[in-house]
Every structure is written in structure tokens, then in C-alpha cells.
Design goal:
heterodimer; A: CBS domain Like; 4-stranded antiparallel sheet; disordered N terminus; B: mainly alpha; MetI-like fold; globular
Amino acid sequence: MTDATTNAGTEQRSGIEIRNLYKIFGANPSAYVEKVQAGMGKEELNDKHNHVLGLQDINLDLPPGKISVIMGLSGSGKSTLIRHINGLIMPTSGEILYNGRDVVKMNTEELREFRRHETAMVFQKFALLPHRTVLENTCYGLDIQGVPRSKSEPIAKKWIDRVGLAGYEDYYPNQLSGGMQQRVGLARALANDADILLMDEAFSALDPLIRMDMQKVLLDLQAELQKTIVFITHDLDEALRLGDKIAILRDGALNQVGSGQEIVLRPANEYIAEFVREVNRGRVIRAETIAMPLPEGELPKMKVKASSVLEKIARRMADAEVRMATVVDKANKPIGVVDMPTILTAMVTPASVEEGDDAVEEESAA
Amino acid sequence: MASSCWGLPELLCEFPSLPNKTLRHMRMGIDDGFRGIVRAYSDQIDAATRPLQWFLNMLEHAFVDTPWFIIFALILVVVWFASRSVKIVIGSAIGLALIGVFGLWEDTMTTLAMVTVATMIAIILGLPIGILMARSDRMQKILTPVLDVMQTMPSFVYLIPVVVIFGIGKVPGVIAVVIYAIPPMIRLTNLGIRLVDKEVIEAADAFGANPRQKLWGVQLPLSLPTIMAGVNQTIMMALAMVVVASMVGVGGLGKNVLQAINNQFFTIGFLNGFALVAIAIIFDRASQAFGKRLQKHSEAGHD
């Protein structure tokens, strides 16, 4: 617990700012940064100069205390990007600012201290130490910091409890299922008490049901801990479920940054629109987005929260057999109304985004 | 001369080599120079090998002079703690008993002392060299051909300089055995460390481990099975080498075998040979079981 972490907790917390980040892989990457900045494309760089453009011109603010999701398919550069935040990969040019310090300019020792105290990481394939028990694995970050076991073990035990693994302290990772192993990975990261939590496709290797489980675990923990989480995924549903802010990465460039709702309702380009097409919009769009102005006279009796997603509201309204409901804000003050047809329209993917009329007809017939 | 060469000129028939005179001068020059250097530094060489000589003698005396039943029990205890297997302990007891019954106990103890020292030196030198090799690709490029030479060069050949430098006796014997037995230790340490899961190494980096913490906390423990295979191979090769080492004056089972070869003593040859085999099997089973036991955590696999 250095000064930096205490400061981060009490004073204005710092997010992570990524500025003008370029990453080129090859024998002499710095020689090509200017050419890429001047507009040389990925193909030209690859074909003519035999260098690979990993990331280009990334500018991204990752707000403190929020979950920022970086989404992209394999090869989009998302795993490369997250490794820049704790300096596992150094950029060819650009800055990564945290608490007024540039990670890129840190020397080896500073970087080590930064990693020890201010970041923690969860890995896709768990990356647990097979020769250590669950408890010892959870202590790992604290061992590295030089915290004696007498102090680190109670901390580790607490986090093992919190991720739901109480009683498994003396098991070895090999004896646990994938989901349980990743709980250990999460406990190990949390035990570090770092402000930044980097999660590299942390749930991608898990079965769908267990993945949902882990997402819930993460959201519950985050509600209380308010860490600055950077979450990498290739799954848009996961991004929408977890992300306060979502950045979509394609071929090493950011295509769109925004909230889940913004991305679903206003995809920035055809590529994102294609992604969004399959999304369950009822779980993303919130009541406030489609609320109509308050009508004259009496308001509908049923009240729904402005932040509720449409699917939930629709279920409640259907159960209660009402057609309209009042949308209220956090202070329980009415701000508008929603009715069933509006909700249904918003929940169905609009025809303009749908592939063709046939698809729409099939859906309405079904 | 060119008669068998389809009438070709001599240059194309016989491979053009340096003139015999030049070659002779070269050989003599190198040999004399080498001997000269050794003679000039013989005091220093003696001083340097004295601790080794002392350690070897001490251990040999300890093995030979201690009453047989104590050593017998001691070996079984070590085997038990290494393997925790009653079967291996009973096997070892039978092997050792047969060695004693056929009158080879003392020679076996001499050989055992020698192999123990050689293996210890090979591990003490081999482990750090292997670690160094794993950390730097350049080191690996330099050392790989050296190890190739050490493993393929007939051991009789490097006995020559060893004898020139250290004379005849136990020390040159041990050095020859170490040269022969150390390559697997180095190679398998290098391989083991290089095969450690990249993601686990990355995790150690991400938590801010320094190189020392990474080596002791991750790389060595995770490469232990491979390193143990290296130790096992080193022991086996040291045992195989004791017969050759007996040519430079190392006593024990190897010397008996050498005498048996010279005199065509069929029975003595085989008895001593089998004694070596028995020791080899005891060491092998015990060290392998030990290596497996270290990997207890990976046994109860969950897939």
C-alpha cells in the first residue's frame, strides 16, 4: 500500500488515458511510425516493409471506478492494447497516463513497482502457478511485494471467500474446474489491492453458464470495490453486460467508443452494425431512452426505473397486464411514460439494420 | 598413385592434404606447447585440484571404512525418503545384498563415492549453466555446439589432455566423468526453463516479479520435472563412464571390468557389470520416484 494507492482512494481518482498510441511489430518499428502517421496503410507496411501494424492512433480514456470493455475479434489488437497499460508491451510511440505519470517513460524498477501496487491482471488461460495451492496462488502478488505470509494469508483468505471458493484453500489448481480456477485468478488479482484491474479475455475460456456466473461475480464485486477495470472480450453480449464504456477495436484502430446503448442504437459503421444485429436489444436499451413525455392528467400506476432495461419492464408489464407505465428517476420523480408498443418496437431490431424483408417476415410469423 | 583413379591427375584423385612434414610439425608444436604450459603451471593445477582430491578421498574412506550394514541401511533410508515406495526399497535391498554376497561390496563403495562426487559437481555446475543458457539465446547458440562436442567426442580422446594436465588418479577420472555426464544436466535445465508456460511467466511479470523472483518462484519449480530427468540422466552417464575412467587409475568396479577385459575373465566381467547395473537401477528408480513425488500437485488432474 504505497502513497499512490492511498491517494487514489481518497482524492480525485485518476483514470487511464491512452494518447496517440502506435504499435508496430518488426525489425525496426520506430522507422515507420511517421510513415504510418502520414497515412501508410496496414497492407503497404506489411507487404513492402515487412512490418506489422499492431495498433494505430489509439486515443482512449478509461474512466476511474468503471468497467471499460475493449471489444474486438482475434487479431484486432485488443490483447496487445491491454498489455500496454501495465507495460508488458511497450508502444512504438504514444503515452499511457495514470495519476499524471507516463507508463511508457518508467524505468524497469518503477515499472515493477507500478505493476506490484497499482495494477493486477487476470488471464484468459488463468495462468495460475500449478505448484502452489489456491491459498498460495492468491498470496502470489503479495509475496512478490514482500508481504510476509502472516499478513498476506488473512487477506488471501478473505478474497477466496469473496469469490466463493471457501474450503478450497489447500487444493491445487489442477484439481479445480475452469470456472473455479478463474475465481482463483480473480482472487489473486484482487488480493493485490490495486486500483487497476486488467482482465484479458478473462471469461472467454469458460462454458457459457459459468461465464454468466463469473460476470455476475465481477459485477457484484465491482459494485462494492469500484476499481478501474479494463476488460477485453470478443463477445459483444459480454461487453454490453459488463461495460460502462465500450471501445470497439478493429485491425488495430478504434472504430467506436461509447456506452452499450449508444453502440447498439447508433453503430458507427457497417462493421459494428453487423455485430449489433444479433444483440438482444431488450437487455441493452433502457427505459429513459424511449420514454415519451409525461401526458396530461393521471399517470399510469406502474412505476419503472429509468435505468431498467426494456426486457425487464416488458416482463413486469406483461405479468401485471398493463399497457403503460411511468418512468421515474432515482429520486422516484416521474420523468416520462412508456407503453407496450413502443417497448416492443425498440426491442425488435429495426428493419433498416436487418438483412432483408424476408427475415422480418419470418420473425413476425414465428 | 593415380592408378585406381580412372587415369585422373593426382590432384583430383587423392584429396589434397597438407604435406606430412607440416602436419608433423603442427602436431609436435601443439603437443609440446600444451605440455609446456601444463609443466609451467603444475603447482597451481595441483593446488586447484587439492580440495577435490581431498573431498574424493574423504568420501571414499567414509563409504569404504564404515561398516557395511550402516551403509546398507543408509542407502535404503535415502531410497525410502526419495521414493516412499516399499517396492523400490525391497528391490534396492536385494540388489545391494547380491553385490555383497558376490564379494563386490568394497569396490562398489569406491565406485559409489566417485559417482556421487561426479554427479554433485555436474549438478552444481550444470544447473547455473543451464539457467544462463535458457536466459540468453546467444548463450544457447554458443553452448549447443560445445555440448555436442562433449557428448559425441569419444571419451578416450579427452582423457588424453585430462591425463596430461592432471596426471593419473582419481581427480582426472572424476573430471572425465563430469565432462561426459554434465551435458544432459545443462540441456535439460535449459529445455525445462524454456518450456515453462509463457502465460505463467507473463503473469509473474504482470505482478511485478523481478528476475530472481521469477527464477526461484516460477521457472525452477515449473521446470523441476525436466531438471530431475537431467539429474537422472547425469547419474546414469556417470555410472556408464566409470569403466572408462578406470583406465586413468580410478578404482572400483570399473577397474575390475578393465582387468576382466584384459584377461578375458568372463565371469568377473559380468559380475562387476551387473553390480553397476544394480546401482544404476537403484539410483534411477529412486530419483525418478523422487521427481514424480515433487510433481504431486499435477497428479490429481482435472480435465
